[in-house]
Write the structure tokens for this entry.
Amino acid sequence: GLSGALANDTKTGNVYNGVTLKFSEPAEARIPNTRWRLYVFRKKAPQNAPSSSDPNKKDDGLIDTYHISRQSAYLFGRERKVADIPVDHPSLSKQHAVLQYRALPSKQQQIGAAIKLQCKPYLMDLESTNGTFINGARLDPARYYELRKGDVITLGASS
């Protein structure tokens, strides 16, 4: 079967709504037991930027909340036909990044005990032009990065 590597052709059967997806779910893909949420915030303005006189314009406020534990993967991008979380920022690719839940063996296994799987969220950049970032560090494309509670995800040059 296919791995988590990027799928590049229609022969893989990785087509959704007539669009070839840039990724395939790995064999260890699972719907999580834990209820995860993704909070979308507006990025803080630089310290030296002039403050807005509009009292209705909030800086660094919560924009949206997504409940992201109902399926095993969530695609971020501008292509509304396939994106689970559509993002309209012009710096984003049509299929920008994917959040994938993976059930992998726990690293805290006891010798002789049954293998215990832990389902955790991972983020993969789908070879986007302007990149995907976790806590300010740019991700290498086509590679899974484990997400932890409190991580800040930035897509492209979005704010």
In short: Residues 1-10, 51-56 have pLDDT under 50 and may be disordered. The CA atoms of residues 41 and 63 lie 5 Å apart. The chain is about 0% helix and 30% strand.
